[in-house]
UniProtKB/TrEMBL annotation:
SUPFAM superfamilies: Phosphoglycerate mutase-like. Transmembrane segments: none annotated. PANTHER family: BROAD-SPECIFICITY PHOSPHATASE YOR283W-RELATED. Coiled coil: none annotated. This is Phosphohistidine phosphatase SixA.
């Protein structure tokens, strides 16, 4: 059984280019609060992957520093805002088969963006891509599954700050 934590990045500045948008001071505070919640609820990742965009990288690093300092943040290029959730699942499966990720046990934190986090969560829990989950900045949805695939995950909790 694996726990899968899907997190939207913290609040970010509204400047362009999009891939260089950094967290605001409020965004940093949101992520720190969320990290405390994750610790209190014992959702402590032993693997972290994040979008290559700056605000997601910052979010992932802040969570790692706060509650899992021994965990290295890995970048997954297919976690940008408009990437396909099916491609994310295919990429995770390929990384598991190559030994880069363990998807059968532990706790994996995935840090990304809207709309991908909402669509990915719907796909994993309900088996479709209609956005039935809402994410505010720094929100986390905690899932568990025997296998990470469409419709195979069970919703444990949604954590808001």
């Amino acid at each position: 059984m694996i726990q899968l934590l899907i997190m939207r990045h913290g609040d970010a500045v509204m400047t362009l280019p999009d891939d260089e948008r950094a967290l605001t001071p409020q965004g940093v505070q949101q992520v720190q609060q969320q990290a405390s919640q994750l610790l209190q609820t014992q959702f402590i990742p032993d693997q972290i992957i994040a979008s290559p965009l700056q605000r997601a990288q910052q979010t992932a690093e802040l969570v790692a520093q706060a509650i899992a300092p021994e965990v290295r943040v890995n970048t997954l290029d297919s976690l940008t805002p408009n990437d396909s959730p099916q491609v994310v699942l295919q990429t995770l499966d390929a990384k598991a088969k190559s030994g880069e990720l363990m998807l059968d046990t532990g706790c994996l934190l995935v840090v990304s963006h809207l709309p991908l986090v909402a669509v990915l969560t719907s796909l994993l829990v309900e088996g479709h891509q209609q956005r039935t989950f809402t994410y505010m900045t720094a929100d986390v949805v905690a899932l568990e599954a025997e296998v990470i695939a469409a419709g195979c995950c069970r919703l444990l909790k949604q954590l808001r700050v």
